[in-house]
């Protein structure tokens, strides 16, 4: 005989849900404002006035932004850095973490100690700049990729995840004639897909949002990343990186604010599109990487 128990909501539950809904609205409001302003037609746009829905919608700001050479160049630069950087991050992080899981690896404890040391102590901006300069990477995409191939936190989390995989699988594969590389590619990597998905998102977001290092290492505006260009457009009123902030289209002048907001929306749109496809594996990968079985 079974009984179905329905949860009784208390006053605390209602207050809790109300607070969470209010916080969600506050968080979503800036995004909603960006989208509405970017879609507002130039004929009805009034600065410093907010409407829940524009009286007239228009894609003129997006059309102008996507036809601007500087924006398209920055977009291509960011896509290139994100794809190559994320791929290299995954390769170096997972291969190094896999090596550190082998207790027979020479100098394993010393290497782990150096990894943890970099987690505790950061050399700072000047030593990093001198390193990039001495490597001849200034004003190149390599300055944003090679110095950040992996990091201590990622290595530790991925190593913890790989440690949770039963070692018997590795031993049985080696008994069947698999090499270490074969074990990694055929056994470890397929079982690590949740962690791969999670760190793909971590690394991709980090590269896509690259701003400070791009400002520090890139002096050629043709190599700027999207975030640097958007910052210049949004905060520097005198900038003409997009040709003219008060853009002309069809003999009418587009408001500066709609062009700026459209650039911000386009900058964050790819991550918003990719995240839902990785969300399931992202949550699973984080949980599995935090527990050693």
As for the number of domains, it is 1
Largest sheet features: 2 strands, antiparallel
Q: How much β-strand is present in the residues?
A: under 5%
Question: Order of strands side by side in the largest beta sheet?
Answer: 1-2
> And the CATH topology?
MetI-like fold
Please tell me what the overall shape is.
Answer: globular
Query: What's the gyration radius in Å?
Result: 25 Å
The proportion of residues forming helix, as a percent range, comes to: 55-70%
Can you identify the CATH class?
Mainly Alpha
Low-confidence stretches: 242-251
Identify the CATH homologous superfamily: MetI-like
Distance between the termini: 37 Å
Order of helices and strands: HHHHHHHHHHHHEEH
Structural class of the helices, strands and pairings? mainly alpha
